[in-house]
Predict the 3D structure of the following.
Amino acid sequence: MTIRFAFLPLLLALNFSMCKKQQAVTEKSQPSGSAAPATAAPAVAATPKVKKPVVDQTAQVLIFCYHRLVDKIRYPGTEITPAVFEAQMKELKDKGITVISMQDLLAWKRGEKNIPPRCAVITFDDGWKSQYEVAWPMMKKFGYPFTLFIYTEGVRGGALGGGEAITWEQLADLRDNGVDIQAHTATHQDLREGHTVLVIEPGGKRSKKKLTGADYEKWVQNEVVSSKELLEQRLGIKVNCFAVPFGNYNEHVKELARNAGYEAMFTVYGQPITFTSPLDSIGRYAIEANKPKVFADAVNMIGASSGGGTAVAEVGAKDLTTQPADGDTVRTATPLIKANLSSIGPIEPGSVQMRVSGLGLVPANFDPKTGMVSYQVPQKLRDKSCTVIVSAKSAGKKVETHWTFGIEEGPATAASSPAAAAKK
Ligand SMILES: [Zn+2]
């Protein structure tokens, strides 16, 4: 039998996000109906059974929210020039802040996946075409994932989707290339009961009304729930994030969103996200041309190395000699696991810990002379793949590495042999 353990982190793909039309209620007609070329959803990768890794709970994540990228700023509240945007993306890189995908952030919050100590997630709101035409190429250049928060009536052809709006075809293209697309309601308005809202009727007729009671419930249901379903059906995706327009919501709206299956809700009250930040009010930093300090302040919040908690330096397993090697498949369910930590530098005695999926913390041996940490698995591992996490302290800093190998018990031939390399 073949092992199929794909590296799930890699499959999580990139996200991109973008926002758009915040100028809101502009013109346009056309009910958003939809009947779009329904594209098949990308197949979900078969998830191998890898036990949860131990995640770094001291990591911090900045989430940035952008809107339009334009050369000439006319609405400084939601626009930024491509040059400034690019400089900010570069600054993240220069400052050692890793841009991760929204789905990686959520996997970390679930305790399923580790992330580097200092991260950023890039999101774009409202679905402007400049996100597709200008931002995307830049993000590709940097190799950054991103997420788009889309309000469905704001997509081109929708009741609020003017000429600068992104199109469904562009969204499908982004989706096909791994960009994460998430929900931002149907018409981008204050979701709390009692506010006057623009009501667009099926025929396209619009009026401003203060909705209450059953009328409000019907309207807000469409904003929170139906808009999610529309995105999922039209694009063949799974939507699990909800950006609340203007960050205005209340317990009732949260409950609707939770019931609709949203895993996380986002506001625009920027703050570093930690492992314990509540998922129903994740703050993002809205980056605007007229408030250049917002980005700088955010970066400084976590950029100053010892900002919060103990930083854990991630050491790539490839930089160490490990046995079995990352991605290898072994023929025994009782492998000898080893890693040479000497390339990390002097290791503080007693600080070395090894965790093995399915076993947890194990009594590994560490030889300070050779820098070798080793552990003979005493009884058969049950899963088809095994993740090892080794952490240690070096020069007062915690370092950590993890790798995964496959197990395929061979016939007769005992002994461990590095067989087929895992495929991705
Ligand atoms: Zn918005």
